Amino acid sequence: MDKLIYLDHNSTTPPDPRVVEAMMPYYNEAWGNASSLHQFGRHAKAGVEEAREIIAKTFNCLPEEIYFTSGGTESDNFAVKGAAYEHQNKGKHIITSKIEHHAILESFAFLEEEGFEATYLPVDQYGFVDPDDLRKAIRPDTILVSVMYANNEVGTIQKMDELASVCQEKGVIFHTDAVQAAGKIPIDLKRTPITLMSTSGHKIYGPKGVGILYIRQGTRMIRWQTGGAHERGMRAGTENVPAIVGYGKAMELAQKEMKDNDRKISAMAEEFRNTVLREIPDVRFNGPEEERIKATVNLCFKGAEGEAVILNLDMMGIGVTSGSACTSGALEPSHVLTAMGVPPELAQSAIRFSFGKDNDPEDIDYIVNSLKTAIEKLRMMSPFYQSQ
Ligand SMILES: Cc1ncc(COP(=O)(O)O)c(C=O)c1O
Which CATH number describes the domain made up of 17-256? Predict the structure, then answer.
């Protein structure tokens, strides 16, 4: 096998060499504890604070509103549980959508077991939450709403301004999981009244195990992890300095190169999608035409089971995923596609192709031909498939 093609950038991205380069001095030289007063500590602290400044500037917020965490999952847990516990005296009703990442859905399930009441908003066939549905769902005892910015399986970008404004108007905390949006599309926290926002380093060519929770100034939250005074006492634990520095660098590059990356990746992904739809019969595209992270192309191949497609493509050197990586291994159809109204047996055949900045447009023919071979083979073996 000579070719290796990675098309799973929504799961994780290869670290940019410039990010790795920026991190290395914090392993080799400035390895001090960022809390120490001496110069070893001060050097490490300077790296952390510089990263905080870069990230704050990217989102047009204050550095004091950025809290470093171990990634998207922790930030989601911090946001949902941290806000719910802090504000439970006001009410115990919380709202989210049916297409969230499991870091949100499981946090909601946990809180339901703790006596909170949850509402799960539906989405339309493209994966959009209707701001009117949100408005109707908010009650006097609603304390938190969490709706993701961009979906990891189909790429749908929600109507963030409208959703956040409804919550602002009603005086309810609004959290968004922006793990798949941050660094890919512009986010302006001065303009959009988001109260809490989660992001993660490894989705934008940064290191794994680092992310942020943005907490709008004046928002009360429980102290998430107790111990020392790190992260202004809200999230104790010695900072992962190299990862934080790497995340700052990754964000700086993502911001600077956003337009070029988007143009290149979108063109490539669109060409791939259109070629597949033209050349392979019985394919369904899942997601909206516009208001989507175009790098994400989610397709159902009737009669070809998703896991089998993945394994066949893997043998041809192509890395893709079915549903989302976090659920692969389980054979249930994707909760996102099911919520969008895709029949379960068709949802079983869904494959997510997620393109990145290092993909080569020259490879599209090879990818489509490999896919065609795999689908034809699996359909021939399927007792259920009959072409129309
Ligand atoms: C939308 C979304 N939220 C949260 C996460 C979890 O982030 P992390 O891997 O940094 O814990 C992911 C990762 O797949 C994601 O796509």
Answer: 3.40.640.10
Instruction: Determine the atom of ligand 1 nearest the C-alpha atom of 209.
Output: 10
Start-end of H helices in 118-240: 131-137, 160-170
Ligand 1 atom closest to the Cα of residue 211 is 10
CA-wise closest residue to 97 among 123, 66, 58? 123
Mean pLDDT over 181-191 rounds to 98
User: What's the CA-to-centroid distance between 152 and ligand 1, angstroms?
Assistant: 8
The helix/strand count (H/E) of the chain reads as 13, 12
Domain with CATH 3.40.640.10 in the chain: 17-256
Q: Which amino acid is at 133?
A: D
Q: pLDDT band at 322, cuts 50/70/90?
A: confident
Q: How many Å lie between the centroid of ligand 1 and the Cα of residue 73? A: 6
Residue in this structure with the two tokens 């520095």, named with its chain if needed:
245
pLDDT in tens, 308-320: 999 999 999 999 9
Query: Cα separation of 55 and 49, whole Å?
Result: 10
Cα–Cα dist 159/179, whole Å: 16
Instruction: Give how far Cα 209 sits from Cα of 198, 203, 354, Å.
Output: 13, 11, 21
> For the structural domain made of 5-13+258-381, what CATH number should be given?
3.90.1150.10
CA distance 76 to 69: 10
Q: What is the signed CA dihedral for 235, 236, 240, 241, rounded to 10 degrees?
A: 90
